[in-house]
């Protein structure tokens, strides 16, 4: 693989992704968001977190219904319980990783 | 998490995300190494492209000698949700200078966005550049180092998933979702749970027709619209 080809890809994609993140902030400095947009955006955090989690619980099969990622679904159970009990992000992450390691060790996945 | 918005607090708050970056970063480095990408190009990609799922897709497409235009379209599709995130962050940092806004936006990720939205529940809905830069730069450096380590160790790590580190990022979002639901007092818990359940159900249906990243964008937009609709009818 030619290094120049990889480099061009990196520069092109990097610039596009930078614009995606920065342009909304520049627009927000210039204009006041209308109320409906503010209300819409207030749901973005939970909607995006739920979508990210769901994407990891399902497995995409082109042209068919998604499968279930059993490994992730199983490991999610102790993670959710830890979140409710401890309310500590670090605890959730550690319990989740240990649970996943155990699931693989036991071959449950 | 506390109401402290100092640089130090930012470094402390970003700690739980570090495990996710190390797990996913190592895995990406191994994948990139296997795809035949030089380690210094892996470092450059992490510094310039800086997007987990985008980088995985790029490594796969580069190995298949895809045209740059196709990779560009894929990258934009996968990361278009970032625009929603930076729009959501915007009101909290509107009073800061344009340069500060650009610097914060440049290094914004799913994870630091999530942290910032959690943080405002403790800070009376305020964010400060010092806190944001600490979280952003911490995440940025850890990601870059983890991907380079993965690329250099490449063949040595036969199965980088063996330790469950790859689940760290998912676990973190589970924790963040729960903390967000109980922390955001501006919405009743029931309404938030409703949106979460609807988004997950929509993801299942959407992933029948679209790959994960596209499904995520559509489900998020529909989820926000539905949440808005419920809020408007119930006040």
From TrEMBL, chain A:
Transmembrane segments: 6-28, 40-61, 73-103
Domain of life (superkingdom): Bacteria
Keywords: Membrane, Transmembrane, Transmembrane helix
Pfam families per the UniProt record, alphabetical: AzlD
Name this polypeptide is given: AzlD domain-containing protein
TrEMBL record, chain B:
Transmembrane segments: 20-44, 56-78, 137-157, 163-182, 189-207
Cleavable signal peptide: none
Entry keyword set: Cell membrane, Membrane, Transmembrane, Transmembrane helix, Transport
Residue ranges of coiled coil: none
Cell compartment(s), UniProt: Cell membrane
A UniProt-annotated Pfam family: AzlC
Superkingdom of source: Bacteria
Main localization of the protein described in the UniProt heading: membrane
InterPro entries reported for this sequence: Brnchd-chn_aa_trnsp_permease
Membrane-topology annotation of the record: Multi-pass membrane protein
Family, per entry: Belongs to the AzlC family.
Name the UniProt record assigns to this protein: AzlC family ABC transporter permease
């Amino acid at each position: 693989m030619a290094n120049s080809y990889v480099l061009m890809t990196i520069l092109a994609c990097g610039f596009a992704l930078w614009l995606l993140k920065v342009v909304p902030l520049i627009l927000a400095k210039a204009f006041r968001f209308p109320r409906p947009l503010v209300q819409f955006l207030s749901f973005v955090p939970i909607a995006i977190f739920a979508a990210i989690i769901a994407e990891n619980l399902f497995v995409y099969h082109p042209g068919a219904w998604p499968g279930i990622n059993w490994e992730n679904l199983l490991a999610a159970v102790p993670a959710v319980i830890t979140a409710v009990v401890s309310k500590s992000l670090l605890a959730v992450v550690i319990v989740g990783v240990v649970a996943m390691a155990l699931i693989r060790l036991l071959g449950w996945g | 998490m506390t109401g402290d918005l100092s640089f130090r607090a930012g470094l402390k708050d970003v700690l739980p995300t570090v495990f996710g970056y190390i797990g996913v970063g190592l895995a990406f480095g191994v994948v990139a190494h296997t795809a035949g990408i030089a380690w210094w190009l892996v470092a450059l990609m992490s510094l310039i492209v800086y997007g987990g799922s985008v980088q995985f897709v790029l490594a796969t497409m580069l190995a298949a000698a895809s045209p740059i235009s196709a990779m560009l379209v894929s990258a934009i599709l996968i990361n278009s949700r970032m625009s929603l995130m930076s729009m959501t962050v915007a009101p909290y940092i509107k009073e800061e200078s344009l340069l500060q806004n650009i610097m914060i936006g440049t290094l914004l990720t799913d994870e630091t966005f999530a942290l910032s939205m959690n943080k405002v529940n403790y800070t009376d809905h305020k964010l400060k550049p010092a806190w944001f830069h600490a979280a952003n730069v911490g995440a940025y450096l850890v990601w870059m180092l983890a991907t380079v380590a993965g690329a250099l160790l490449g063949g040595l790590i036969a199965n980088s998933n063996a330790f469950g580190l790859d689940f760290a990022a998912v676990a973190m979002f589970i924790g963040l979702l729960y903390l967000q639901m109980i922390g955001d007092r501006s919405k009743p818990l029931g309404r938030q749970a409703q949106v979460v359940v609807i988004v997950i159900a929509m993801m299942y249906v959407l992933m029948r027709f679209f790959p994960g990243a596209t499904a995520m964008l559509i489900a998020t937009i529909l989820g926000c619209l539905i949440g808005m609709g419920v809020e408007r009818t119930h006040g």
